[in-house]
Predict the structure.
Amino acid sequence: MDRYGVIGDPIDHSLSPVIHHQFLFEANIEGEYRKILIPRSDLEKGIQMLRREGIKGFNVTIPHKEAIIPLLDEVDETAIQIGAVNTVVYKNGKFIGYNTDGYGFIRALKTVVKNLTGMKIAVIGAGGAARAVYFSLYKENVERIDVANRTIENARRLIGKYSPENFSEALSLEQLYDRMGNYDLIIQTTPVGMYPNVHELPISLNCLKKGTIVFDLIYRPLETEFLALAKKKGAIVENGINMLLYQAARSFWLWTGIDPDIESARKKMMKQLKGA
């Protein structure tokens, strides 16, 4: 039996097993995909354990996406540039790290807007997910990408890694609030508003203009308070479901060489989310 999984802390909330068990079923592969709790302080021991178990591949979630990089045998160039790994493949005796978050994000975003050329974009957050989003958008011929974060220095660090002068600006959340009407697309990459803290907001939307696209990477709940308020303001809203599915499908392809159909996995996942 082929073994796969997802590591993180916390990990109970993950819906990755629902998706990947469906992918395995559809591909007629005898395998299992499990949640693996590895505390931050035990990451190195956890990776050694996975090597001993003979796992064929695993996903990586909070808080390990950055810390895992020096513990791997090889890291794909895109993951190096992003500075975060969310997928590990076991191949020829080596653990090789990849990042499928950026791929999943762009695929999901293009279900809402086909052409990103010339768009003015604000990203909320400066963590691993924000870096994947920024890096993937940077290659899409957008006009500018500003990054707003509670700690502005982290936003400056993210921007400094990728962008030429005058392409991006690091903002405080207060500055983003004042300029919110300037953007065509606002992407919320932080865990603020995630279950169980569903009433939290990363920023007020009082200055949001009608018709802005608002993308919240959270998928639990399906509609965060942030998205609900954006919808009331006349925004076009998107949650993290499609991104989760597309990045998962890319991970599955890296492990198996099979490009799965996401629709059956979507039905399984939505059934679980609505029953939760």
Notes: The mean pLDDT is 94.
